[in-house]
Amino acid sequence: MRLTTKGRYAVTAMLDLAFHSQIKPVTLTDIAARQTISLSYLEQLFARLRRAGMVKGVRGPGGGYKLCRKTSDINIADIIAAVNEPLDSTKCGGEANCQKDQACLTHDLWMGLSEQIRDYLKGISLADLLEKNQVQEVAIRQHHDAQQVIEIYRHPD
Amino acid sequence: MRLTTKGRYAVTAMLDLAFHSQIKPVTLTDIAARQTISLSYLEQLFARLRRAGMVKGVRGPGGGYKLCRKTSDINIADIIAAVNEPLDSTKCGGEANCQKDQACLTHDLWMGLSEQIRDYLKGISLADLLEKNQVQEVAIRQHHDAQQVIEIYRHPD
DNA sequence: ACTTAACCTAGCAAAATAGTCAACTATTGT
DNA sequence: ACAATAGTTGACTATTTTGCTAGGTTAAGT
């Protein structure tokens, strides 16, 4: 389990998607604008997320991306694993050069630790994160903004 | 909290140090040989660990490095944090450009998650990891002893 | 003095990260 | 049918991080 900014980008984008794709698909352009991530970088990340079966692309006007599963069925560990290269189990990938070595022992130790972190992140879903914090405040504000837009369009004078 | 191979190297080296520095300081050359990490890279890592007050260097012949604290008082999160750059809190470092933005909210969300991981790793000490290692060694030794016992009982003459 | 090993500095190659550009294909509203 | 939208792909570039090399200086034991 590797934790870098790449994983953070992926989780952030998925959070954005989860939040905004309730009604209709969300374009990467929108996510890029909201989260200040470059569009093309997002394309790369979402290509991996799509291959991992986490999101689905909808083409044509009104298209975009939407989640394949419920937010409660998508966990953080899977998102991060999807955008990262499958970490090669390093030097002692079961080979003979590292059987009775102490290097292999500490390696096992680290692998165990890594596994614990993965399990920990597997226990946190998108829904958990969405539930937290002042996300609702944003909902209210954005609803308000949307209302204003409606007002403007309603009275175009 | 960032999790990369760099942090793994640091934890591995600290484990080696904790395991071998019971009697006298351990040279980086020894650790480099045992853990197959380049000497100079270890020097870089230990420079940071030293500045973080986790290890102490002893110069001259018979010198090397030793831990500043008990293994039970050294946790994994601190080791990893010591060798990593202090991650700039990114774009919205409390500035005005990101106050009511949604980008800042998801950022907060990620920071919260990161904090959870840090707390989790803070709860794991070197002593904890060593204990596991010890258990394994004991298991191996006991297996070996058991074999000898079997031998003895097989040829009791 | 001489050796040992920490400590320091600069630099470098490979990899990962982050982002750009351009061409292409599929879908849909009009 | 056609134009607009939006996903898809691949190649390409810049920056940062990683892991390592090579060369020193400094402190402490023999």
UniProtKB/TrEMBL annotation, chains A, B:
GO molecular function: DNA-binding transcription factor activity; double-stranded DNA binding
Keyword terms: DNA-binding
CC terms in the record's Gene Ontology section: cytosol
Pfam families xref list: Rrf2
Signal peptide feature range: none
Coiled coil feature spans: none
Regions crossing the membrane: none
Domain of life: Bacteria
Entry-linked PANTHER family: HTH-TYPE TRANSCRIPTIONAL REGULATOR ISCR (PTHR33221:SF5), WINGED HELIX-TURN-HELIX TRANSCRIPTIONAL REGULATOR, RRF2 FAMILY (PTHR33221)
Protein name (record): BadM/Rrf2 family transcriptional regulator
Native organism: Methylobacter tundripaludum
